[in-house]
Amino acid sequence: MKKLFFIALALLASASFSTATAKAKKKKEQAPVVVPVSLTNGSDSLSYAAGMSVTNGLIPYLVQQQGVDTAYMADFIAGFKEAVSAVDDARQKARMAGIDIAGQVLQRMLPGMKKEFTDTPDSILAELFFRGFTDALLNDTTVMRVPEASNIFQAKQQTNKAAKEEKLYGANRKAGEDFLKENKTKEGVITTPSGLQYKVLKQGEGAVPQRTDKVKVHYEGRLVDGTVFDASTKHGTEPSSFRADQVIKGWTEALTMMPVGSKWQLYIPYQLAYGERNTGNIKPFSMLIFDVELIDIEK
After folding, report:
1. pTM
2. How far apart are CA 228 and CA 231, in angstroms?
3. Where are the beta strands (DSSP E) in 92-249?
4. Fewer CB within 10 A of the end CB, N or C, for the chain?
5. What is the pLDDT of residues 191-246, one digit of tens each?
6. How is residue 282 annotated by DSSP?
7. In this structure, how many other beta carbons lie within 10 angstroms of the beta carbon of residue 192?
8. Using CA atoms, how far apart are residues 83 and 93, in angstroms rounded to an integer?
9. CA torsion angle for 217, 222, 227, 233 (degrees, to 10)?
């Protein structure tokens, strides 16, 4: 029994020594080999200096834009060297390209699509997104073909965009439509075929601008709830100047009907204003009200 005990101890010690030796050997093999730099002529010095100079700002970029932890710079360098050595290796070059595209998809494309479908009945699931991506590249048509997939995706985009807009801005759109519906029945309000409504507060007797004329105006813009979002007086005491065709459609239409010296109140549907865009304090589908005084036409 005593003999067996000593044999077991010997085997245990031998195994421990072997494991420690293997770990030490592996650690030694993984240690990077640093080759001394030899700069023997001007081209050598130029090349080395150029390589160092182009790294200026690279580490902050890797940390902030690529999410690289500087504790793993040795791994970054290993990847860099792999890519450099893959220049003439078609298989390795393809792998490097896959890694690069994966980074673009993960950092920009997928987050953008997920954001697009936020607050909609549907959402983008990463696992199935990646499967569809790779199946398309392998020409796997078991589930669907690329043209069919594109049609499905575009249809979902449109449907969900409409649902999202209605959820977020439907009340704003309806408030404008209700205002215009009631306003067009009021005395002095004129409605044009485009849907623009206006009321003449003061009729001038000067010339009427052409679309390409530069005009001088005083104005104040309000939302349907009465909030003032802009006015010429916010930009100084002088009238604002711009070409008649370089503003929203409702303004262009009104300016090309107004004689100089006129002051009109404009009621502009969202289709003739900023439409579905979110512009500062102006939400998508906002109907706008403007008091506009045409001071002069700049010749």
Report:
1. 0.59
2. 8
3. 189-191, 197-202, 214-223, 228-231, 240-243
4. N
5. 999 999 999 999 999 999 999 999 999 999 999 999 999 999 888 889 999 999 99
6. B
7. 13
8. 7
9. 0
